[in-house]
Design goal:
The protein is of the alpha/beta class and 186 residues long. It is 34% helix and 15% strand. Strands 3-2-1-4-5-6 form a 6-stranded parallel β-sheet, with helices on both faces. The protein has a two-stranded antiparallel sheet with strand order 7-8. Helix 2 links the parallel strand 2 and strand 3. It is elongated and about 70 Å long.
Amino acid sequence: MLIAVRRENTPGENRVAATPQTVEAFIGRGCEVVVEPSAGTAAGIPDSAFVDAGARVSGEIGDADLLLIVGPPGPDLLTGLRDGMAVAGFLNPLGNPELIDTMARRNITAIAVETIPRTTLAQSMDALSSQATAAGYAAVLLAASTTPRFFPMLVTAAGTVPPAMVLILCVGVAGLQAIATARRLG
C-alpha cells in the first residue's frame, strides 16, 4: 500500500497529517510512504526527518492508495486524485456535502477522522481530543499574552501584584486543558 502525506496549503495551517514516527509505523507494517516536499516545514519537521524515517519525498502523490491530509481537499487536489483511492483527514462531511458527493461519484473512500467515535476501542484514533487539547493550551497562552495583568501572583519588595482572574466556560477536552494550563501559569 502506498500512503501519501500532503503539504497543507490553507493559510495559517501549520499541521501535517503524519509525523516521522507515524511514517516509521506505516513502513513497519509493510507500507510505502511518499511525503510532499515541505509537508512538515510549518510544523517544524524538515523533509530530512521523513527521509530518515523511511519515506520518499516527492510531489507525485496521485498514485497513492491512501492520502493523508489535515483539511478537506480543494477542487484542484480532487482533480489530481485517482478514482478508487482513499482520503483521510478532517473532511467536514456535514458542512461540505458537495465534496463528499464528488468523492462518492469518483469512488474515492472518504475517511473523516472527526467522525470516529470517541470510545475506548477507538482512543488511539481520536483526532478531536488531540486537537482540542492543543486548542485549550493555545487559548490560555493567547489570553496570557494579551491580558494587561500578570497571570501569577507576584510578591516583590515593592509590593504584591494580584493574579489575573481566569474564567473558562467549558469543561470538555479543550476546557480541561485550558484549566490545567492556566493553573500551571499561576
